[in-house]
Amino acid sequence: MSRPYHGRRRSRPNRRLRYPNGGKPPRPRSYQAFGLKVFYDLLLLGIRGRARRRIFNDFSCMIALLIGGLGAILGWNALGPLGVLIGFGGGFLGGAEYLSRNGYYRP
Q1: What residues contact 31, with CB distance under 8 A and at least 6 apart?
Q2: Based on CB atoms within 10 Å of each CB, which residue in 11, 35, 40, 62 is the most buried?
Q3: Domain count of the fold of the chain
């Protein structure tokens, strides 16, 4: 008796995929991923728990402000003084939303 699909590999029953959705590996969810936790342990001696989370949350706020500043520059180039307000607001809110949604800012 021949196989039902000639030339196709047989699938094994009850075999789980390596990644849940069959796609790429999961993305890191914090600044301490990528194997940098050891580096941060050396850099931030004795800082653990809430204090460390506050440091990384402050870093995330600085990144959101930087994105807002870049938005303000682009807004100035596009719309002048009104564009500064619109660009900063949009850049800051977009950056903050991205950072909190991806787990880089944890209240």
Answers
A1: 40, 56, 59, 104
A2: 40
A3: 1
